[in-house]
Amino acid sequence: MTAEQVITESVKEFEKVVSHLENEFSRLQIGRANAALVENISVEMYGVPQPMKAVAGISIPEPRSIVIQPWDKGAIGPIEKGITEAGIGLNPVNDGVVVRINIPPLTEERRRDLAKHVKQLAEQARIGVRNARQEANNKFKQLKGSGDMTEDDLRAAEKKLQEKVDDANKKIDDVAAGKEKDIMTV
Prior knowledge:
By secondary structure, the chain is an alpha+beta fold. The chain folds into two domains: 3-26 and 107-184, Orthogonal Bundle (Topoisomerase I, Chain A, domain 4); 35-102, 2-Layer Sandwich (Gyrase A, domain 2), CATH 3.30.1360. The chain is 59% helix and 15% strand. It is built from five helices and six strands, in the order αββαββαββαα. The chain has helices at residues 3-26, 52-55, 76-85, 108-145, 151-184; strands at residues 42-45, 48-51, 56-62, 65-70, 92-94, 99-102. Strands 3-4-6-5 form a four-stranded antiparallel sheet. A two-stranded antiparallel ribbon has the order 1-2. Strand 3 (56-62) and strand 4 (65-70) form a beta hairpin. The longest helix has 38 residues, at 108-145. The radius of gyration is 22 Å and the shape is elongated. 24% of the residues are buried.
C-alpha cells in the first residue's frame, strides 16, 4: 500500500463521516415537516420490524404536517404504535385511512437545545475524522518502518493528509452552521 492509497482511503472515510452527519441532521425535528423524520421508524408488520418507508407512502401536504398512507389498511395501527414508541415527540392522528402528524412550532428553549445537539453531532463527526487521521498516520509509520517510505515522504504524506482533514472539518463546520441557522430561524 502506498501513501497515496492511504490518503485516498482516509478521504473516503472523511466523506462517510460528513454524509452520516448530514443524515443525522436531516432527522432532527426543527418545526418543519420532513419525511426523514419518520421514514426510518421501525414498524412491526407481519411479525417483522420494517422501516416506515417500506410499508407506507409518506407525503408532506403542508409545511407543518406529514401524511402517512399505508399500502395495507391493517398497517395503520402498527404505524401509529411505531411513531409513538420512536420517542420523537410527535403525536400521530389516525383517521382510519391515513396517519397524520402535525409538527408543533418550536419554542425558543427547544431551539437552543437543538442547536446544542447540532454542536454535539458536529463534534462527534470531528472525532470520527480525527480517528481516521490517526489510522492513516499509523499506516504511514508502518510504511516507514518497513522501509517503503522515507522520512521526507512521511512528512509530505502527513502534511497532505492534514490538508484533507482540514477540508473535512471545514465541511463539517459549514454543514453544522447551516443547520444551526435553520433551527434558530423562526
